[in-house]
Amino acid sequence: MATRKATKATAPKANKAKAPKAKKVYTAADIIFDLSKLDPELRKDIEENWCHLFAKFPERLIRIESDAKTIKGEKIGFMTAILYMAPHAISGQNLCALALLARCADPCLNLSGRGTFDVNQMARLRKALYWIQYRERFLKQLHKEIRLAKAQAERQGFILLVRLNGTTDILWERYGVPQAHADIQFYDYTKIPNRNVPANYDLTFSYSGVPQFAPFVRRAIEKHMRIAVVFRSRAAVEHYLTSGETFMGMPVVDGDDTDVRHLDPQAAVVALYAKGKAITDQSGFVVG
Ligand code: SF4
Questions:
Q1: 78 SS3 class
Q2: Does residue 190 fall inside a structural domain?
Q3: Ligand 1 within 6 A of 269 CB?
Q4: Residue 201: which of 230, 161, 154, 237 has the closest Cα?
């Protein structure tokens, strides 16, 4: 005989919708970087306003650049990945050995374009502290990101270019970074003329007209290096490009069209025009 199953009285379901997770509030105690060598004002700013950023390692070090210059580079087949970190001694350790002598720290490109936003400045400082204080971990992440960038460039039909000194002047060859990626073209601008770099690392010497820096400029000329010169205005650059006039006895090529420097000739001047704070610079770094 079939028996009818007793039906359980169904209790009304409890409302299982989760309450929104409370956002973690970071304090100075969460900061994982040693800030003791920073300017006291900067340190105070971080401890009051930027704990959330300095409580974690950066997720990304290099980024595929997308400014007008690198977009033009893409038109001729190159994708550019750049690492930007806080220049000179902002991090408490000098990452641009000759910046004081060349007097370029103030008008440095770090303070132009997107770099004028506080969050970008702080992100660059965090990366500089990461480089200084967690070197091994930083390098491991950097190598991985370079490999990923190469794969991305190839997927999209580009050749990858890597510029590690977006706003620093570190001798990456001493850490074996370009050597570990012999099939990738690295490039940088540098104030240091006597670097010994592997074949896949292209350097353009960065000029300053400050008298104390003159011996370094002479050395770069002797070595037939390509020399980047920042002129006060685009009009000054145009003058050299259209008149065929030389600068320091060298032919002048346009450096603002693309950032694909390794295709430019050696023993030539790469003309750039001043941007950001550099427009009003009177140190001698900017010409004109
Ligand atoms: S211009 Fe170059 S060397 Fe000078 S502070 Fe900026 S990144 Fe450093």
A1: strand
A2: yes
A3: no
A4: 161
In angstroms, rounded to a whole number, what is the distance separating the alpha carbons of residues 53 and 30?
Answer: 10
**Based on the structure, what is the number of domains in the chain?**
1
Compute the Cα dihedral for 233, 237, 242, 246 and give only its sign: positive
Closest ligand 1 atom to Cα of 102: 4
Comparing C-alpha atoms, which of 214, 210, 208, 160 is closest to residue 187? 160
CA of 199 relative to ligand 1 center, distance in Å: 23
Q: What is the pLDDT of residue 6?
A: 42
**Residue 161 within a domain:** yes
Burial 82-109 (b: 16+ CB within 10 A, else e): bbbbbbbbbbbebbbebbeebbbbebbb
pLDDT confidence of residue 57 = 98
Does any domain span residue 20?
Answer: no
What is the domain range of residue 100? 35-280
When pLDDT is cut at 50, 70 and 90, the band that residue 105 belongs to is confident
What is the reported pLDDT for 13?
57
Phi first, then psi, for residue 59 (nearest 5°) are -75, -30
Is residue 1 one of the residues assigned to a domain? no
Distance from Cα 144 to the centre of ligand 1, integer Å = 26
- pLDDT band at 16; cut points 50, 70, 90: low
| Closest C-alpha among 96, 169, 179, 85 to residue 133 | 85
Q: In whole numbers, what is the pLDDT of the chain averaged over residues?
A: 89
| Other Cβ atoms closer than 10 A to 177 | 22
Query: Which of 110, 172, 227 should be mutated for ligand 1, with most atoms under 8 A from CB?
Result: 110
pTM above 0.90, yes or no: no
